[in-house]
Amino acid sequence: MLKQMGVVANYTYSKDSGYEGKDYFTGDSLPFQGLSRHAYNISAYYEDDVVSLRGAYNWRSKYLITAQGRGNNPEFGEAYGQLDASLNVTLMPGISMFLEGVNLLDATRKENANSVERRTIIETVGRRVYGGIRFKL
Q1: How do 80-92 and 128-135 pair as beta strands?
Q2: C-alpha angle 61/65/66, rounded to 5°?
Q3: Which of residues 47 and 68 earns the better pLDDT score?
């Protein structure tokens, strides 16, 4: 059974330099747009001839969206993590059923104008679960 199981993980640390964007009010240097300083993901899986089961958690630290947004404030995406999972069962050759869950922890994505006290977006899309049957012709 252990031969069919596995874990994949990675961590990324990114320290940028060279971007010349500045905070309009403080003059502080800003990071590259869209770049998180820290990010990681971890996935676990089990797979045999009949069942394929996978789970993945992805996380990133805050990141700059734009150097000058509402009120000339830089806008940031706040740290965000999401858990997804999938299950696939082969019923017979060419026919399988699947179940897929997205954002299982019901994470909320948030953006702010340089302070968590000045939130500009709070986006909740909720948990999503999909299921169905696949046919191969």
Answers
A1: unpaired
A2: 145
A3: 47
Structure tokens, 86: 């999938």
Q: Are 54 and 44 in contact (CB under 8 A)?
A: yes
Cα-based distances in Å from 86 to 9, 19, 54, 98, 129: 17, 39, 5, 7, 9
Q: How many helices (H) and strands (E) does the chain have?
A: 0, 10
Torsion angle in degrees (nearest 10) through CA of 15, 38, 41, 99: -120
Q: Which residues have CB under 8 Å from 49's CB, separation 6+?
A: 90
Reduced to 3 DSSP states, what percent helix, strand and coil does the chain have, rounded to the nearest 5?
Answer: 5, 55, 40
Using CB atoms within 10 Å of the CB of residue 30, give its burial: 0 to 12 exposed, 13 to 18 middle, 19+ buried: buried
What is the per-residue pLDDT across 65-117, written as a single tens digit (0 to 9) for each?
998 888 888 999 999 999 999 999 999 999 999 999 999 999 999 999 988 88
Q: What is the pLDDT of residue 55?
A: 98
Assigned token pair, 108? 């909320």
Give the burial string for 96-135 (b: 16+ CB within 10 Å, else e): beeeebebeeebeebbbbbeeeeebeeeeeeeeeeeeeee
